[in-house]
Amino acid sequence: MGAIRVGVIGAAGRMGREVVKAVESAPDLELVAALGRADPLDGLARAGAEVAVELTHPDVVMDHLEFCVRRGIHGVVGTTGWTDERLNTLRGWLAGSPRTGVLVGPLSVGAVLTMRLAQYAARWFESVEIVEMHHPDKADAPSGAAVRTARLVAEARRAVGRGAAQPDATTTALPGARGADVEGVPVHAVRARGLVAHQEVVFGGTGETLTIRHDSTDRACFTPGFLLGVRRIASVPGLTLGLESFMDLDRDLDRDPARDLDRNLHRPGPR
C-alpha cells in the first residue's frame, strides 16, 4: 500500500504547524495539502487527500466537515466546541457516506489515559470535581476533554449506584462559583497566559483525596494522537468519539481492576 494522503486544514496555526511537521516526518504518510483557515477547501479534493486533519475554530468546523464527508474524505478533528446537536448533525452526514469515518477528539494520549484512570477511580470516591486550565486564546469553556471526562466519570458513578448528588453544603454562591454542572460533576475552567492544556480530576473520600493530573506543556505532545487517528480512521466508518477507541486500552486489561481489588480486600489471609 502507498502512503496515506493527508491534508491539514488550519495548517498555519500553532497546532497545525506541529501536525504538518509530524506528517512530513512520517514515512507512511504524505502531506498533499496544507490549508489556512481562509483557503478554499477544493484544494483537498484536487490534491486527492484521503484524510483531512481539521484544526481551525468551532465557528467553521462544521462547514469543513460537511465538505469532507460529502466527498468521502475521512476526518481527524482536533477542533473542540462540540455539542450533542452538532454530533448528531455529523452522524447524519456520515449516514449518507457510509464508507467515511470521522474521529473527534480529545486526541492527546495523556488526556485519554487520564480519562480512563478517572473512570476506574470514580466508583470508589464520594466526591469528584474537575479543573481544566488552558491558554486564553481557547474558544470554548469548559474544554471538550473536561466535558468528556466528566461524562465518563458520571457514567462510572451511575454504574455502581452512585447518584449525581455529591456532598456540598453550599447554599449561597456567586454565579459560576461552583463551576459548570456536567451530569452532576462540577467542572471549573481557568484561562491564563502561559498555560497550554492542563486538567486535574480531584476525588475525595473520608480521610483521603486522589488527584489525577495531566499537563501538556508543548503542542508537539498531541501529534502522536493525531497520527494514530490518521492511520486508523479509514478502517472505522462513521463517527468515533475519542482516541481511546484506537488505543487498544483493554487488550491487556480483560479484568475489571476495581472488581479484582474488591476480591483481594476480602480474600481470607493465611491460616
Short note summarizing the structure:
By secondary structure, the protein is α/β, with parallel strands linked by helices. It contains eight helices and eleven strands. Helices cover 33% and strands 24% of the residues.
Number of strands: 11
Q: Which fold name fills CATH's third level, the topology of the largest domain?
A: Rossmann fold
Class by alpha and beta content: alpha/beta
Supply Rg: 20 Å
- Total individual domains: 2
| Count of helical regions | 8
Can you tell me the CATH architecture of the largest domain?
3-Layer(aba) Sandwich
The fraction of residues in strands falls at 15-25%
As residue ranges, the low-confidence spans are: 260-271
CATH superfamily of the largest domain: NAD(P)-binding Rossmann-like Domain
**Widest β-sheet, arrangement of strands:** 2-1-3-4-5-11
Can you give the helix content as a percent range? 25-40%
Descriptive account of the structure:
- The protein has two domains: 4-104 and 220-246, NAD(P)-binding Rossmann-like Domain (Rossmann fold, 3-Layer(aba) Sandwich); 109-217, Dihydrodipicolinate Reductase, domain 2 (2-Layer Sandwich), CATH 3.30.360.
- It contains eight helices and eleven strands.
- α3 runs parallel beside α4 (84-95).
- Helices cover 33% and strands 24% of the residues.
- It has a six-stranded parallel sheet, sandwiched between helices. A five-stranded mixed sheet has the order 7-8-6-9-10.
- The protein has 271 residues and is α/β, with parallel strands linked by helices.
- The N and C termini lie far apart (62 Å).
- The chain is elongated, with a radius of gyration of 20 Å.
- α3 links the parallel β3 (51-54) and β4 (74-77).
